[in-house]
Amino acid sequence: MSTALNRAGLARDAYKGAATTLCAGCGHNSITNHMVKALYELGVEPHLLAKMSGIGCSSKTPAYFVETAHGFNGVHGRMPSLTTGAHLANRQLIMLGVSGDGDTASIGLGQFLHMIRRNVDCTYIIEDNGTYGLTKGQFSATADLGSVQKKGAVNTFQPIDPCAVALALGCSFVARSFSGDGKQVVPLIKAAIAHRGTAILDIISPCVTFNDHDGSTKSYSWVKDHEESIADVSFIPFFEEVHVDYEPGTVRDVQLHDGSHIVLKKLGEDHDPTDRQAAIKVIEEGRAEGHLVTGLLYVDTKMDDFATTEHIPQRPLKDLSQDELRLSRDQFSQFMSEFA
Amino acid sequence: MTEPIVNDLTIQAATVNGSGSQTANLVLTRAIFHMGIPVAPKNVFPSNIEGLPTWYQLRITPEGHMARSDKVDILVAFNVATWREDLKTVRPGGAVIHEEAFSTAEARTDVTYYAVPFAKLAKSKIQNDTLRKQLANMIYVGVVAGLLGIPWEAVEHGVRRQFLTKPKAVPVNLDAIKVGYDYWQDNFSKQDPYRLEPMQGAVEGKVLVEGNQAAALGALMGGVTVVAWYPITPSSSLCEYLVAYADRFRVDTATGEKLISVVQAEDELAAVGMAIGAGWAGARAMTSTSGPGISLMAEFSGLAYYAEVPVVIFDIQRIGPSTGLPTRTSQADLGFVYTLSHGDTKHVVLLPGTVEECYELARDAFDYADRFQTPVFVLSDLDLGMNLWMTPEFKYPDKPLDRGKVLSKDDLERLAGEWARYRDVDGDGVTYRTLPGTDHPAAGYFTRGSGHDEMARYTEGADAYARNMDRLSRKLETARHVLPAPLADEAGAPIALIAFGSTHAAVVEARETLAASGKPVDYLRIRALPLSDDVAEFVRRHDHVYVVEQNRDGQLFDLIRLALPAELVGRLRSIRHYNGQPIPAVAITEPLMQLEAVPA
Ligand SMILES: Cc1ncc(C[n+]2csc(CCOP(=O)(O)OP(=O)(O)O)c2C)c(N)n1
Ligand code: SF4
Ligand SMILES: [Mg+2]
């Protein structure tokens, strides 16, 4: 393990959290490790990080990374509203939300949609296992039609695909990945954090206890066999130099507002991550062909985020002084006299 | 003709919702107030945008009674649909101004009729086609001004004040009023006893404010910076006023930036969630709603209680579910709000009884929330929130904002990082918190519901849980002694009243009536939950204590009974009013006299 210090002067261990209480082999644990790596490499200052979550096995994970950061384990499906409020109180914080597929696509669907609609500056990670892990294995709304529950029941409903929904709403950052694919997850987490606006990252994260059997489309083996990455992702933070040593025409470079770059290396067909229609098409085609399309599907670096459209200052609203908050005596008596 | 009745009358205007009648009502109210005469307006409106009947009651008394009157002296009948019923409400000897086309055949003979061809006058005299419908209501203001002898100067003032921000509208409205004024002069001679005469000393230093306006101003003065809300009558206007006031007072003139964020959320779950998120991150945060929204906030309120997050939640009460009487007043959320959420929860609830208290308690709610790190509910209601009330001008705060026990980076350095989020260092149950963004390695902690130890570490341990529960009780006990104390008005009477909220106005009047009939009663007004010890002491000093409230089951009565020592419980009696109309004084005096007549 690296003891090298990052930009914030911290070793990788500083990004660890409490010991996990999740099942051994749970995809969520892998994501926690990816998170540690991404946050360490980005040099995020722990005190500026706010880890937010709803309820579920997935929503417990913020306790398992960056122990010294503030975190808030809220109520089921309502992480977005807590995140929105905390962000408005203090725009300086890096809002990092972790949710599950039940937390997001069922009970929390409304808040998920409205957070995207407002483009609140935050990272929204869905640890997507197609099941309700914490309540012991019921189907969730992301379970595919025809997928089979552990005890044999067959899912008869169309799935809600969080990425497709996010794209339909014009979400400013939409990506999908697989918990077992650290090479892809880590740069996507970094890019999502660097992005200004709501970044949705749907990470298929197998539940070894309730949804890792034959007939499941969220099992390790199914995802390994069916994952189709649209491009190799690498992330170059604003504080590092960009070396482009690729053949021309083989990479796409997306520059984020903070000067970071997402470099996408073509794998199969070329996908333009700034083309929303193309992103929707790529998901639809993958679904029709029985593939799980992963990678950065869409990014819009121009869209104003919520705090910008709300015209609130950069300095935290929580820090405003009494003089700024209260009417002056003169203003107050003038105002009272208007009621006469 | 009988003795003149001066400055002591109730006007009731029966109109059609959405016809612009409210503006006319307000002009009349402001004109009379300008004469130095106390006014108490009550708007009774349907859950409808246009077409259903609506009534506006303007009560005028030299004493400044603010409660609704159950008697109408002057009816202004504009609505043919309710005409027959409206007529029944007028007291014998009263006056009725009505649209000429309404039939008075078989109508009452003990009232004076003034038939005015409102429709015809509007058609022939109001040139402005687009505004004719609105302006037609102004004609009634002119007729009433003529009837009661309101000086034209007062009328002008009323119009100018009502259109403070739209001065262009003043002349057309005055013209329309003049049509009615002239019609009165040209066609009627006075047949009824009612008159208005300018008064001295009754309204000096007073202003007319809606409770929701007052609360919005209070929130602003309390330093609110994050507001999240979802529209619902009768709460909406609180946040709408806040938006307007914030646009005026919370814009950084140098940068154009807003020093507040007001978010219209997707529902009340999100509204309270945003407010709690903001409160957790250190902002002064609030939401405002009414009963249906409170229901949706139940789960989050419990989380905020256990996670100990400051947040202010306004409940402008109305009658029950959304399909029902959603635009009628009530005080029936008291019990629900007090223990809102599942599990062992008990909240700080503030109970403003006047618009001045709407301002003060809205302002101070933020201090209490920060100080006790808990949700603070402010319970107002439709009557208090949406009607104009005469009030002394509000006072500028004499205390700085109290942000509670928050540890800064410097504090943590001084403590060498020795700190535990839920450790009761001071013995008052209130622990120290840190805010996200505090640049110290010991600052961070993980916030969750009830399963944590003093260090905020996860545990399901029985002892840690019970310890935390006991500390939370201790915290509420600390709060109980600090919250606004009940206000007592006592003169050694053997019987007494207890009330809260907008019922206050009716109690004040009922006491005067009772005292005048030789039965003075003492009074205690509750201003916060959990209940102060003063309540039991007050009950101990009286033989019978009547708890007056606007709900069916006597919710405050129940709470007080639970808090009383057994030997005092029998002294308590309950008076309840729950028909959706603001409680009038007779709804107190009559049952009290009846119950007093029965030996206990
Ligand atoms: C209001 C409410 N309803 C139900 C529950 C019970 N519950 C806890 S976790 C959960 C499902 C979590 O599923 P998901 O978000 O997919 O998380 P996972 O455990 O699969 O990671 C449910 C239904 C709850 N905590 N709150
Ligand atoms: S039940 Fe499933 S989701 Fe929950 S910890 Fe175990 S493996 Fe992970
Ligand atoms: Mg799940």
Describe this structure in words.
The complex is a heterodimer of chains A (340) and B (600). Chain A has twelve helices and 13 strands. Chain A is an alpha/beta fold and 340 residues long. Chain A has a single domain (12-309), classed as Thiamin diphosphate (ThDP)-binding fold, Pyr/PP domains (Rossmann fold, 3-Layer(aba) Sandwich). In chain A, the strands form three sheets. An eight-stranded mixed β-sheet of chain A has the order 2-1-3-4-8-7-13-9, sandwiched between helices. With 600 residues, chain B is α/β, with parallel strands linked by helices. Chain B has four domains: 5-204, Pyruvate-ferredoxin oxidoreductase, PFOR, domain III (Pyruvate-ferredoxin Oxidoreductase, domain 3, 3-Layer(aba) Sandwich); 209-392, Thiamin diphosphate (ThDP)-binding fold, Pyr/PP domains (Rossmann fold); 405-484, no CATH class; 487-597, Rossmann fold (3-Layer(aba) Sandwich), CATH 3.40.50. A seven-stranded mixed β-sheet of chain B has the order 11-10-12-13-15-14-21, with helices on both faces. A six-stranded mixed β-sheet of chain B has the order 3-4-2-5-6-7. In chain B, strands 18-20-19-22-23 form a five-stranded mixed β-sheet, sandwiched between helices. The longest helix of chain B has 21 residues, at 462-482. The radius of gyration of chain B is 27 Å and the shape is globular. β2 of chain A pairs parallel with β17 of chain B. Bound molecules: thiamine diphosphate, iron/sulfur cluster (SF4) and magnesium ion. Magnesium ion (MG) is lined by residues 56, 100-102, 129, 131-133, 140 of chain A.
